[in-house]
């Protein structure tokens, strides 16, 4: 069974903290994505990666970075968390146009 | 540029009546199109996908969608709503000629099913 696992369901962080969101997939997929979901805006692409150590900016990369050192793991990094980064973050792994999503991490920055 | 427009932010139907969730897309080439569903506090689940085969696509839980190129639409339908269909639905396009498989999401339609 396909599995995409995000390390935390809920996180509360303080403004200015460095935050790591982890995502692991067990399907040997090359393409992985990070989205944020906000009410009325749908899902917006932050970054994606099509291979180990390869990354590309999505539509809203400002304030974020990513790391992909191993094929199965794709990390999203908030260099200095701000309150406008409070959101639901979703990781996806894609093969042949079909995307598999993790359960999401609800991040609150206070 | 590729884009997706979901024409209704909220749709309310009575149980047992038909469901119609509307979606229009913009794409330079023939795209792949999807509908995803998200139940409260759950992850996104693929309902169905169109990838240039039959224009009428059947999905899970009795949902189906019809690809109409002339209208650039991909509306989601179900003949009879069930209470368990209450959720948020996303229309999604993956542009053709894009090997990265980027998905572009609509803003979502929240479906409410009344008893």
Derived from helix and strand composition plus strand pairing, the structural class of chain B reads mainly beta
Radius of gyration of chain A: 13 Å
- Structure annotation, total helices of chain B: 0
Mean pLDDT level of chain A = 93
Whole-number average pLDDT of chain B?
90
The SSE string of chain A, one letter per element, is EEEEEEEEEEE
Structural class of chain A: mainly beta
- Spans of chain A of at least 5 consecutive residues whose pLDDT stays below 50 are none
Shape of chain A: globular
What is the string of SSEs of chain B from the N terminus onward? Answer: EEEEEEEEEEEE
**Helicity range of chain A:** under 10%
Distance between the termini of chain B: 41 Å
Radius of gyration of chain B: 14 Å
Oligomeric state: heterodimer
> Count of helical segments of chain A?
0
Number of E-type strands of chain B: 12
What overall form of chain B do the CA principal axes indicate?
Answer: globular
Largest interface: A-B, 25 and 22 residues
Low-pLDDT sequence parts of chain B: none
Task: Name the descriptors.
heterodimer; A: 110 residues; mainly beta; B: mainly beta; 4-stranded antiparallel sheet; 12 strands
């Amino acid at each position: 069974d396909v599995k995409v696992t995000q390390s935390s369901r809920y996180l509360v962080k303080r403004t200015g903290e460095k935050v790591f969101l982890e995502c692991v997939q067990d399907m040997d997929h090359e393409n992985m994505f990070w989205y944020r979901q906000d009410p009325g805006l749908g899902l917006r692409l932050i970054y994606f990666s099509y291979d180990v150590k390869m990354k590309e900016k999505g539509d809203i990369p400002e304030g974020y970075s990513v790391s992909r050192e191993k094929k199965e793991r794709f990390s999203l990094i908030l260099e200095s968390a701000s309150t406008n980064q409070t959101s639901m973050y979703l990781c996806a792994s894609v093969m042949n146009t079909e995307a598999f999503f993790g359960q999401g991490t609800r991040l609150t920055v206070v | 540029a590729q884009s997706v427009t979901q024409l209704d932010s909220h749709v309310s139907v009575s149980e047992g009546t038909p469901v119609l969730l509307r979606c229009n897309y913009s794409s330079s080439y023939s795209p792949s199109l999807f509908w995803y569903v998200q139940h409260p506090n759950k992850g996104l689940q693929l309902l169905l996908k169109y990838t240039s085969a039959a224009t009428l696509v059947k999905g899970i839980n009795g949902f189906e969608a019809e690809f109409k190129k002339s209208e650039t639409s991909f509306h989601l339908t179900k003949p009879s709503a069930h209470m368990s269909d209450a959720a948020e639905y996303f229309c999604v396009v993956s542009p053709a000629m894009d090997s990265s498989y980027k998905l572009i999401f609509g803003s979502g339609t929240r479906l409410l099913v009344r008893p």
